[in-house]
Amino acid sequence: MTRKVISYKDGHVYEFAPNMEPIYTAKDGESITFETIDSLNKAVQSDSDLMDAIPEEVNAATGPVAVEGATPGDVLKVEIEDVRLNEEQGRVITAPEFGLLQDHEDIEHPATRVTEITKGSESLLFKDLEVPINPIIGTIGVATSEETITTLIPHNHGGNLDTTDMTTGTIAYFPVFQEGAMLAMGDSKAAMADGEMCGTGAEIGTDIDVTVSVIKDAAVDLERPLVDTGDAWKTIASAETMEDAVEMANEDLIKLLALEHDYSLTDAYLFSSLVGGLEISQVVDPLVTARNSVPSEYFSDPF
Amino acid sequence: MTRKVISYKDGHVYEFAPNMEPIYTAKDGESITFETIDSLNKAVQSDSDLMDAIPEEVNAATGPVAVEGATPGDVLKVEIEDVRLNEEQGRVITAPEFGLLQDHEDIEHPATRVTEITKGSESLLFKDLEVPINPIIGTIGVATSEETITTLIPHNHGGNLDTTDMTTGTIAYFPVFQEGAMLAMGDSKAAMADGEMCGTGAEIGTDIDVTVSVIKDAAVDLERPLVDTGDAWKTIASAETMEDAVEMANEDLIKLLALEHDYSLTDAYLFSSLVGGLEISQVVDPLVTARNSVPSEYFSDPF
Predict the structure, then answer these.
(1) Does the ipTM surpass 0.90?
(2) I need a labelling partner for A142 at 20 to 30 A (CA). Which of A16, A128, A278, B115 fits?
(3) Under a CB-based contact definition with an 8 Å cutoff, are residues A117 and A245 in contact?
(4) How confident is the model over B101-105, as a mean pLDDT?
């Protein structure tokens, strides 16, 4: 079977919502490719293209793609097999009223630096410095349970998680809130620091190979995204404050650890303080995102 | 010259203050060993030893040690050469009104789990699970500039940073606020997750080999602790909220990056969003602690 390519030109969204119209329906277990445009819709092509404000329509997410058989209460498994750059430069920007140091008087808002990809696509150039390319998917998620949520915001459905683990080799799991799940993704970066401090990574278009499948009757009641990076399992939670986000991520993790090891929540909590730990995804979106990681040797597939 | 061993029995503090009396004066460049007691002063030796509250006198810091020639405005360089366990079990605990999930109704407060060290000291046992031993120094710091700060609190002088990078092979740098710097340390853990969610790691006594030296006329005005782990340089900041802590850590880092690469702060900020990133040290002490990491290939010794 030829692998289906779904392009942002075929359809993309700026909101995750309960009712989403699929542009393609994939079979359970099908391998497909999402072609994405950079988060700023090609508006920034040189250092003189400045963003005076973050646009209302930002983070175009290619899709949504329905997955046959997915119904509310299921878990959608997304194996991220490859994330390839589909253009030869990225861009890292500041914009007014956006970013961790948005009030710093000596930092320009707006500012743009285009980052050229060197031949062979192994690194990008920031001024004179070479930065290794580690493409990640910034926005990835499914139809929401009730609210309509813009692609600038992360929440339980995924969305703008800006999580460096959403990369080649990771398996991502999402709760299914609506028939067909309705997977969409975009907002890729050629490189991004944990935290995404200035508000962006090196924003770039990508082609993303994934295999999607539906998990029925999961032993775990998945409320939020979960990833298996190969080395570690990580819960992912978004909230108004970092304090709330890390609390949710830790609570999600200890529930999983308790189930895996037949531990009390107290034991799971104490154990969680010894291995892996809390990580920061991003601190700049309207809700911030944190992770709680546990090494794979202490945790197996909960589904 | 025989290496001087400074034991908690010789002297320890529960506060970092502007005026501290040294129990030993080291030469600039001297290699010494700090012998530390566990953070709970041996009060917890079995699972039935419960902490009904966090004691006022917690985190005994062995010292302080004056370093000859250190004067305010200098930087104290502490090469952490080895952190060895000096007892055969650690303990991980919860206590009332302490820890990330202190209000969780299904988690016991207090609770204690003693973690035995397996032979060869390569791992500890948490119930049936083996956890690799990675000894870290939880509390390490110098005399403060003005305030008296208990050893339960982290701040610009260091103190209760609970940072997993304070381990064998790391070089830690502290601002010198008082004559002699007055280095003290304790509160070690045999293992700890980033975040220290339940409020402790596996608390344990250690013997710590360090070499201390004084840096004069530093090009960098160091306000807070900085570490060189060999792989990365990391700024470390403590504040009332994670949001404030990561902002301070990022601002400290971009100042260093700007100096290193002759960048504007804007360029340093944009670059900081592409490599390394924000990390969590601990979210449970009266001030929380975060780091901003940059890989060593982009940063050289600023002193």
Answers:
(1) yes
(2) A278
(3) no
(4) 97
